[in-house]
Design brief:
Blueprint lengths: L2 H21 L6 H7 L14 H21 L7 H12 L2 H5 L7 H4 L8 H18 L6 H21 L3 H13 L2
Helix pairs in contact: 1-3, 3-7, 4-8, 7-8, 8-9
Length: about 180
């Protein structure tokens, strides 16, 4: 793939990622994504075979980036300390209000029943890898899984409420429950 084509593909993926974070993978149109990338719809199929293929790649890329941030954490931290550190960022106002650097799961999870199975498979793989990163031992895995569910649900509700006192309280309450 030429450098120009690779750069154009990355622009499309960046625009798709931003749309996915805000509205999930089903709602944004190809035209909307291409427009946000500063491109015309006509060039889309030179880079992706379908909208689902684009959104799946963007979804996988975003999830991989999230795991990369956790992988960079101090490896001497206990599972509980890693989860507390992750929740401090994940359940923050900054993350709730972010447009481009946020977790795509809260906006996507409700659409999985209408999407190709590959989305569910990508989420399954991500959750398994995330549990491995956040659990200090196999015995700690269920606690890590519960904390992941708490964080995703807390963030989804806080985003649905939007900025405000109740949303802020919800973030603080969820953060304090992560152990």
């Amino acid at each position: 793939m030429s450098d120009k084509k690779a750069q154009t593909r990355e622009r499309i993926l960046k625009a798709a990622s931003a749309a996915l974070i805000q509205r999930g993978p089903a709602e944004p149109s190809v035209g909307e994504v291409m427009g946000a990338a500063g491109l015309t719809v006509g060039g889309f199929y030179a880079h992706f075979e379908s909208k689902d293929a684009l959104m799946l790649e963007a979804f996988k890329q975003l999830l991989s980036q999230r795991r990369g941030l956790i992988a960079d954490m101090d490896c001497t931290l206990t599972g509980e300390e890693r989860r507390a550190l992750v929740s401090a960022f994940y359940l923050s106002r900054k993350h709730r209000d972010s447009i481009e650097q946020a977790c795509p799961i809260p906006a996507s999870v409700g659409e999985f029943g209408r999407l190709p199975d590959e989305f569910r498979e990508a989420l399954n793989e991500h959750i398994e890898l995330l549990v491995a990163q956040l659990a200090a031992s196999p015995e700690d895995a269920d606690k890590a899984l519960a904390d992941i569910a708490l964080m995703v649900g807390g963030l989804a509700l806080a985003r649905a409420l939007g900025p405000g006192e109740l949303s802020d309280r919800l973030l603080r309450a969820a953060k304090s429950a992560v152990r």
